[in-house]
Request: fold
Amino acid sequence: MIPTRLRTFCSVAYLINRVSKQHLPTPSRSHTTMSASNSSLSTNSPPSSPPHSLPSDPSVIYPKKSSIVGAAGGNPPVTKSLTIQVSDARDGAVPGVLHLPHYYDHANQSKTGTSAILVSGASGGLVGPSSVYLGMATKVASLNQGIPVLRLDYRYPARNQYCVADVLAAMSYLEREHAISRFVLVGWSFGGAPVFTVAGNDKRVVGCATVASQTAGTDGIERLAPRPVLLLHGLRDQTLGSHCSESLYRRYGEGGVRELKLFEGDDHALTRNAKEAEEILCRFAMRCAGIEEREGETEMVKKEVIGDGDRVELMEKAGDLDGEERVE
Reply:
């Protein structure tokens, strides 16, 4: 069930950052380079290395500026590292970091709660593009009406079959342990594949957002409406060109809320507009969860939890840049 506030938005919202065209752009000739013309970072090769484990550096678990949320009137979330068991052909456990609102007591929930699950690209990782996941999770879970946010790695990145199982296992864990029954899925780059695959087959997903998504493995977007979708992409992305998000926008179909925002001059990780992208993703998750954006929430969302100079360094520490994703 989509919150009434969300249904009041126009049925189709097409947003372009600092681009004057009023129609869906045709992919430009800049997409003819080998990398920018790619539509997939997936691989079909069998896993040859051990499954991912949690990073040891605490800076990718707890943001250095997390105290800022208290100054904005919020309460820093309870943050914990965890591993979630997955049952499939490979079994094993997938690592993640869960941010719980300070007030959240699963014993008093009635399995109607909402949570956001954030997944990264073809190398896995925990902080997402320009570390926006770390900032987003801290802020959304710190709101007065905050929701749990799980930053999820993969056992075997870039392999959609196993990554889908990871996301489903995370949903089951949150439902079982924290009385969650509604999920907002967010994916970067390759992460669009597990996000749309799961959402297209599971009605517990109430909304999807992607940053610089690939198109391979994303057929589920055609079954997403009327649930909302948000697509962000940099127009100078040399890893997966913006034509990927433009294609996803068209494939979403009719009858729901779809938003596409293209950032002029920005790259695969939106390094030049990271703070704005973080705010947009926070607000999308809040709308999907039915959270009213009051004055306090607005101030919280705008707070800079991750410094611009730390964003790429944190991606490297968390493993988000170990694969084919690049910061141009």
User: Anything to note?
Assistant: Residues 1-14, 16-35 have pLDDT under 50 and may be disordered. Residues 160-178 form the longest helix (19 residues). The two ends are 40 Å apart (CA to CA). The CA atoms of residues 130 and 312 lie 6 Å apart.
